Amino acid sequence: MKNSFVILLKSPKFMIGAILFLLMLALVLIYPQINRKDPLEMMALAFQPPDANLWLGSDNFGRDLFLELMYGIQTSIRVGLIAGVFATVIGLIIGLASGYIGGMVDNILTAITNIFIVIPSFVILILISVSINSRSSLVTAIIIGITSWPWTARAVRAQTTSLRGRDHVHIAKISGHSTPKIIVFEILPYIASYVVMAFVLQTASGILSEASISMLGLGPYNTISLGIIMNWALVFEAPVAGAWWAFIPAALSIALITFSLYMMNTGMDEIFNPKIRS
Amino acid sequence: MSNRELLIRGKDLTKVFGYGTQKTTAVDAVDFDFHKGEIISLVGESGSGKTTLAKMMMGLLKESGGSIEYKGKPRRLKSHSDRKRYWKDIQAIFQDPFSSFNLFYRVEKLLMDCIKLQGLKLSKEEQYLKMKEACSFVNLKFEELHNKYPFELSGGQMQRLMIARIFMLHPKVLIADEPTSMVDACSRSTILDMLLKLRDENEMTIIFITHDVGLAYYVSDTIYIMEKGKIVESGPAEEIILNPQHSYTRQLISDVPKIHSAWDLGS
């Protein structure tokens, strides 16, 4: 495992993605410590263009958009990571159970997974979001997580099914290891790299999903996220006012974050996927 | 051989995969009696159900029909401790040494697991000596190997380590599923000799699965010939090879050019 991590550091794609992501993370974590103002404080007129004082101008309420953006990126990344953790853990558990136990359990779990795949998850996301009264960013993240696990489950199931029939698993069985031990020590190491890749992808798509439902006005309350900034720009007609600074930086941030995560994923894929490994 | 103690008996053993139109009967109502200290060869072409039968004997696959008796009693594999007890007595070597190892752990762990399965409480030094003894039995140097990962070894070394594992476990029955088919000819005879040595030292029953009739004749006391999931002929090795009754057996023997000339003289 240590070995493959060292190889990973030599992959330019992974490093570009990782450095970009970490720089962004550092910026949004450090800047609010320097500029300790409240991001919701109104400090200028509406839709002031960027200048030396307000780096990205002001929004419809006259708030500092750069500061809002910093908090927005923080929330979006947090939502994405929590959604990624939920999707990966649920997908992993269902995939492992389905693939390793097999038989009837496999049939039932695969059916459930397929049902979740064919129902458009974004519709579920909207319906759940509408029906819940108090939405925090955590609730939104969890909703995204529990609607996006099926692809992970499916892939993990496929890998587990093929690993289950391998001789080293048989050897572990006849060496008297218990089932949980076999899953943790004989199956998981073989799919670990894949699961990490799936987690990165789920995080990226979690950020996108959050931005989408927030832009529809169904995101978390009492917080600032990239989608919410875009929602404000939409509701208060920033494009009509010609205030491009109210939505383009937010949209670019979303693009940049997902780009960095996809880059990391591609870098890992090139290393861990034997078919495209050079 | 029949005067020896009966160890494993299979009655009407059947394994069916799939259902409906996809149904395939891999093993079809097979009966067998294996005795203590006997070397049995299961011979058949690929797809004849040898490996499936072996996996059922191991308890790795559940039989669809029939029963297996171990030491005169129906075997019980319901709970984990039942299975653990069964696997103390019955062990296996698989065909592909490369996939028999977990690539993420060092060689040492494989041998440590054997000590754990036996439930032995040993000091560090005793463990070391035991592993070293097992490795020297198969002509490997434990000092050079214990820190290595499986992918740093050759196929022959891996398969010999698998035999070292069997040496440590001292099972009563060893199921060897084509243990020599993936290693070179040079390692092949060493591995066979090691298996025979194990039998002599421990009075182990060895069930040797192969597609090579010549090899089967060389090592075994009893031969079972399998075709399409059925056992078509069985009996003492001499009898089967020198005086085959079933047409499939004759075909198998004639398909081995090397033994053809050698054993034609006898008949």
From TrEMBL, chain B:
<dbReference type="Pfam" id="PF08352">
    <property type="entry name" value="oligo_HPY"/>
</dbReference>
<dbReference type="GO" id="GO:0005524">
    <property type="term" value="F:ATP binding"/>
</dbReference>
<keyword id="KW-0547">Nucleotide-binding</keyword>
<dbReference type="InterPro" id="IPR017871">
    <property type="entry name" value="ABC_transporter-like_CS"/>
</dbReference>
<protein>
    <submittedName>
        <fullName>ABC transporter ATP-binding protein</fullName>
    </submittedName>
</protein>
<dbReference type="InterPro" id="IPR003439">
    <property type="entry name" value="ABC_transporter-like_ATP-bd"/>
</dbReference>
<dbReference type="InterPro" id="IPR013563">
    <property type="entry name" value="Oligopep_ABC_C"/>
</dbReference>
<dbReference type="InterPro" id="IPR003593">
    <property type="entry name" value="AAA+_ATPase"/>
</dbReference>
<dbReference type="InterPro" id="IPR027417">
    <property type="entry name" value="P-loop_NTPase"/>
</dbReference>
<keyword id="KW-0067">ATP-binding</keyword>
<feature type="domain" description="ABC transporter">
    <location>
        <begin position="8"/>
        <end position="253"/>
    </location>
</feature>
<dbReference type="Pfam" id="PF00005">
    <property type="entry name" value="ABC_tran"/>
</dbReference>
<comment type="similarity">
    <text>Belongs to the ABC transporter superfamily.</text>
</comment>
<keyword id="KW-0813">Transport</keyword>
